[in-house]
Amino acid sequence: ETALRRGGAASSHLPRRFFSVESSPERKVAVLGAAGGIGQPLALLMKLNPLVSSLALYDIAGTPGVAADVSHINTRAQVAGFMGEEQLGKALEGSDVVIIPAGVPRKPGMTRDDLFNINAGIVKSLCTAIAKYCPNALVNMISNPVNSTVPIAAEVFKKAGTYDEKKLFGVTTLDVVRAKTFYAGKAKVPVEEVDVPVVGGHAGITILPLFSQATPVSNALTDEDIKALTKRTQDGGTEVVEAKAGKGSATLSMAYAGAIFADACLKGLNGAPDIVECSFVQSSITELPFFASKVRLGKNGAEEVLGLGSLSDYEKQGLESLKPELKSSIEKGIKFVQEN
Ligand code: NAI
């Protein structure tokens, strides 16, 4: 019945430009925390993605409304809302990609690590359910502190015997999105052509944009400009937290970034070539067990973790300075699961 309905929709309602992707495989995406500040616009953007055939929206409250609303959009994905722990299994079953923006955001004056006590438990319980209901899904971790929640997820999956390092991603795309925007503004180059890798982690100085590798190349930027751009990229989240003055952190730009990363995961799963995005993954690029760098996405998830390339002296310094903080955030996550 579902197939029939979908077929009918394809021939009569979808715009013509979607026909080419109609033959793309069925893909289920689940969003956990779908009624939140990030979750809602992310649900909207995933509903607009023609690679998604089924969209499951899960939260502890509010999802029936979000799902009903988004479901009226005349695009391919069939939308269903799930609310409360007893419906989590159904939300997850059959998922190819699970996106996790569940948990509390920062308020002014807070670091991402201040969220640890609440979000660690939320992530742990959601990942326990993922191990049970969709152990093969690619997991896109948005919940902060990402530097700790990714190691938490890895430990939960290891305990459950389902861990595959190729399938776990910390979403650092917003750092890349910011670096691109700020670089384009300063270098006066067209923003849509800009590429800037951002490596390390996702908090403060652990966010290391590699402007020496930015394209299009700009010779107009001084060392001071690069320092200012680096700092602004590292503090981009705080800029939004302060502007929102207690009403949360980045949600709209984060939803955009999350949608870009999930789309890259789906393209990789579908066998599209040359899909590369920065992400915080298990890594042997440095001595740290997890690290963000460019990752090649494919049918099994992270097919290849790419190296850092050549760094400027300023970036080499930044890399050394970020390691102690990143190391301790990773260890904090691992310890949390081992002790709880
Ligand atoms: P929000 O408070 O607006 O939404 C969070 C949602 O999670 C709420 O709807 C809440 O009901 C839900 N939730 C809480 N416990 C849950 C559970 N056990 N299962 C399912 N859902 C649950 O927060 P917002 O602004 O959407 O931020 C979410 C997270 O994303 C925060 O941890 C924030 O720090 C993080 N974030 C990450 C970024 C990144 O670049 N990776 C950027 C911006 C935010």
From TrEMBL:
GO molecular function, one term: L-malate dehydrogenase (NAD+) activity
A Pfam family per the record: Ldh_1_C
Reaction equations catalysed: (S)-malate + NAD(+) = oxaloacetate + NADH + H(+)
InterPro entries xref list: L-lactate/malate_DH, Lactate/malate_DH_C, Lactate/malate_DH_N, Lactate_DH/Glyco_Ohase_4_C, Malate_DH_AS, Malate_DH_type1, NAD(P)-bd_dom_sf
Quaternary structure and partners: Homodimer.
Cited NCBIfam families: MDH_euk_gproteo
Protein name per its UniProtKB record: Malate dehydrogenase
Species of origin: Elaeis guineensis var. tenera
Gene that this sequence comes from: LOC105040661
